[in-house]
Amino acid sequence: MQDSNFLQPMGLNSLDVSGSMGQAIEILQSCFKRSKLLADRFNCLHPLDFFMELQFSRLKQFGVVEASCETVRFWKMNLLPTKREKEPIAEDNIVLHSTDEGSRAKSIGKDGQVLNKGPWTSAEDAILIEYVKKHGEGNWNAVQKNSGLSRCGKSCRLRWANHLKPNLKKGAFTMEEEEMIIQLHAKMGNKWAKMATFLPGRTDNEIKNYWNTRIKRRQRAGLPLYPHNICFQASDENQQTQIVSCVAQQHSGILQGNRFDIPGTGFENLNTGHGDLSFASSFPDISVSNMICHGYESPGYGYMDKVNHVKQVDAGCDATFYSGPPSVSQFLVEPPAQLTFGLDYPYDPAPNFKDLATFGGEIPDSHAFPIDKFSASRPLSGAVKLELPSLQCTETDDSSLRVCRFTPTFEAVNTYIESSPTTVSLQSESISPQSRGLLDALLHEAQVLSGSKGYSSLKCSSSGITDNDMVECSGLNTFETEWEGYNYPLGHSAASVLKECTPPVYGSLSHGFPPFKDIPGSQNTTVIAEHLSTPNMEEKNTSSHLDFYRPDALLGSDWLEEGSQVAKDHSVFNDAATTTLMGHDFCKEHKIVPAGTSSDLVRETKLQSHSWGKVPNVSRMPELP
DNA sequence: AACGTGAACAACCGCATGACT
DNA sequence: CAGTCATGCGGTTGTTCACGT
């Protein structure tokens, strides 16, 4: 030993941590307390700052802890104070059951004992670790009794499972892990615990947090929930099924964020009785509308029974999304280790899922259906602060039907789904009483926007044109400008297509919509199959139609952001590198500013104007698989 | 430097489930 | 079979930090 003076202020002549882990921890805890004194002396922020910086390096340097590096590592990993603890703490706080722990949250246990809440201290961690070492996991309620730790069993279990358990991986997810999570989520839905079993060292909480963050990020970027390649991993024979499944999945996640309570509403008019769905007969006595939108009202087909018991309209979901009979495989959880999609043979990791094939029960783990269990309180779209109804087909009149009966392609659906938060209501003249308030609010917003700067100008700027152009932009020109750069396969620019099918809306909510029959692609739902089989042309056409009918385009408020992003999606989505889709933030290249004030919009228009040139031409888009 | 905002993380809460009595 | 308890799970909320303005 070169110098052991540093130990003396702590009252230690030497350290022997070569014993058991428990002993080492105790010693280290002791060191910690004593280092508090040093911290005070040297005016450190936190005793552990001093302790960690000095002790470990030097202890190791002197070989004191050489024999117990594992212990030290363990200490470092598990007993380091949380970030929140890195504030000057009272000495009493080091000691358990200190009389004064400041404003720490407390709760009263069943036996009347005061239990700590909030962040765990390193001391508490140490106690818990020791306890588990001695008694093993489980019997968490006994921790409090046996160890004196003022934490409820639940809290102990959580702390152990999420932080103290050995072999937990810390730090950011690797690319492989991220990919795994995405695929697992596509299969399992929000079954975080199950997903965690496939990611050694990761906890369900970590995965959940990661996913929620990811959702928000991608939503804000206007990206689909699942990367494109995930959607099209299906084998050829299952392609259609998987597309459908994928649409449903994407649809589900996004729309969940847009759920909006509208009691007693649904899609009655969209059921298969209209003959739109040739496979309807595959489902005994169940309409697509029921499956999609009425699950909660149809106990016999309780796909949505668990969706927070909230009545909601799965807005924007059209029966025509479904191009063929859903395969049973959609509703089965596939082999966990086999991360491919589209298996038609059922794998049964959980036998109780077998019945799913009969459509008689819930889908415990699958997101294969549109409704998911995403947070209702957290809008998935960062672009919209309010949880707006997307497509409030709350009425059963023709107008609502008209609106719902697009024949969107996969891409269009995807885009539409992604942008649905701003799609408040398409039926300008058939606003349900429930939605009128929101629509009024949006109207007001639109008026404010148009009155202040003119949202048409904003829109124009979003398409990357000059300020001079902006002056001339209005009405349809807006849309033309928006789409002018896109060459359609048959010599139609998007703008021309828009012209052809342009209803007299021009940004005014008060205008009606063209009759359903006038909407290209809406004549016959068999078009969907064509969309799916020959996605290029049809898709682009319909997607532009779709976007055009997006009510936010009519409202103009959020359209600027969403619409331009949608355009980007159309152009970028297909040829974007997989890595982009796999989570590399699209925003980084194409910075998206969340919708907010009008000034935000203006700011964003400039940003997007710059990036617009990067957007590849539609004609260069590779074909869908 | 101050402030605002979003991401990441940690923890809590309520409910579901299964074991046990 | 019903009630209780322990545990697990998923949703939600709160806090901190980093970054941009």
UniProtKB/TrEMBL annotation:
Entry-linked CDD domains: SANT
HTH myb-type domain sequence ranges: 112-164, 165-219
GO biological process per UniProt: cell differentiation; flower development; pollen development
Protein keywords: Activator, Differentiation, DNA-binding, Flowering, Nucleus, Repeat, Transcription, Transcription regulation
GO molecular function per UniProt: DNA binding
Chief site of localization: nucleus
Region annotated Disordered, chain positions: 606-625
Compartments, as annotated in UniProt: Nucleus
Domain of life: Eukaryota
GO cellular component, one term: nucleus
InterPro entries referenced in this protein's UniProt entry, alphabetically: Homeodomain-like_sf (IPR009057), Myb_dom (IPR017930), SANT/Myb (IPR001005)
Domain Myb-like: 112-164, 165-215
Gene3D superfamilies for the chain: Homeodomain-like (1.10.10.60)
SUPFAM superfamilies in the record: Homeodomain-like
Database matches in Pfam families: Myb_DNA-binding (PF00249)
Protein name: Transcription factor GAMYB
The species this protein was found in: Ensete ventricosum
Lineage, broadest ranks: Eukaryota, Viridiplantae, Streptophyta, Embryophyta, Tracheophyta
